[in-house]
Design goal:
Blueprint lengths: L1 E2 L2 H16 L8 E7 L3 H16 L3 E7 L5 H13 L5 E4 L9 H7 L11 H9 L8 H12 L8 E5 L6 H10 L3 E5 L6 H6 L3 E4 L17 E4 L3 E2 L5 E2 L4 H4 L5 E2 L6 H16 L6
Parallel strand pairs: 1-11, 2-3, 2-4, 5-6, 5-7, 7-8, 8-11
Antiparallel strand pairs: 9-10
The structure holds NADP nicotinamide-adenine-dinucleotide phosphate.
Length: 280
């Protein structure tokens, strides 16, 4: 089984952006990372995203707010970030605490700065197959991995386990745009292993540690693991039982070192587009 390495995909994307930056005049584009509270997952994602932006030649600034900030106060502050001409792109770390109306925030964000595709405008564009908007970075990262490794998508049977608004649903649209035949699974899917075994491209985005073992994988399938978990031994793992799929899959992404690395590279690429460094 070939291991699909996120770092290689990310490095190629970086090369493309750094190349385009040579023609770009002006200050490096800035990403605003909006965080409410101090959740360890958010802090770790923020650190990773900031490092990645710097490595792509960009700037990133964290706008952190206290966990208990009232909705109106947060939205006022958010509007100021949204309107700041010095901010080229915005990433809101989700979920927001429950006193904040997340859908109102998603509706407020300037679609041209909405790098993780949370605004209804960008969601509609993903649904319509219109590439001028921003798809959620994780969903797009899956397609970037497939394309970087020249894995054919057109005409192939793709099965996605998970139907969330951030991963499963937008990814189903992106794969449809690439002419895959797409099946989306969820907790009510009957005989999930049998459905998954039909997949030529199997994407695990269920949020359940090591849910998919070798019995879910058809011979020669390409397995992409979106999940990120810390197991009982404190080790990072995905939604796929990596060791158990080795005998069946032809290719698979590891965790760590797979889709996660590409997700922040997609974020950087989106920032490059938002700032006009890249046109596509
Ligand atoms: P989510 O909102 O919890 O959605 C999980 C989806 O999986 C739901 O649609 C759920 O079905 C389905 N599901 C859960 N258990 C299942 C089961 N046993 N059988 C079949 N379907 C099942 O999760 P998410 O936000 O999409 O994230 C998915 C995973 O990706 C998580 O591990 C998360 O940490 C990771 N993630 C990674 C990145 C990255 O950069 N790599 C970014 C975002 C998220 P129902 O709809 O029926 O409940």
């Amino acid at each position: 089984m070939e291991i699909l390495k996120g770092a290689e995909v990310s490095a190629r994307m970086k090369e493309q952006v750094l190349d385009a930056m040579k023609q770009y005049e002006g200050d490096p584009p800035m990403l605003a990372i909006v965080r409410v509270g101090e959740k360890p997952d958010d802090l770790s994602y923020e650190r990773g995203a900031m490092k990645k932006m710097e490595s792509f030649g960009f700037r990133a600034r964290s706008y952190a707010f206290p966990e208990g900030i009232p909705d109106a106060e947060f939205r006022n502050a958010f509007q100021a970030i949204n309107a700041d001409p010095g901010v080229a792109g915005i990433l809101v770390l989700l979920p927001l605490p429950k006193q904040i109306d997340s859908s109102a925030v998603a509706a407020m964000i300037d679609p041209k700065k909405d790098l993780d595709g949370i605004s209804p405008v960008n969601m509609a564009k993903v649904f319509a197959g219109d590439a001028s908007g921003y798809a959620p970075c994780t969903a797009e990262a899956v397609v970037e991995v497939l394309k970087a490794y020249e894995i054919p998508i057109s005409g192939r049977r793709a099965v996605i386990v998970g139907r969330s608004l951030v991963v499963g649903k937008p990814l189903s649209m992106l794969l449809l745009k690439e002419n895959a035949t797409v099946t989306v699974c969820h907790t009510r899917t009957v005989d999930l292993p049998a459905v998954c075994r039909q997949a030529e491209i199997l994407v695990a985005a269920a949020g359940k540690a090591r849910l998919l073992d070798g019995s879910y994988v058809g011979d020669g399938a390409v397995v992409i693991d979106v999940g990120i978990h810390v197991d009982a031994d404190g080790k990072l793992c995905g939604d796929v039982d990596f060791e158990s799929v080795r005998e069946r899959a032809s290719m698979a992404t590891p965790v760590p070192g797979g889709v996660g690395t590409v997700t922040t590279a997609v974020l950087a690429k989106h920032l490059a587009r938002a700032a006009g460094v890249l046109t596509e």
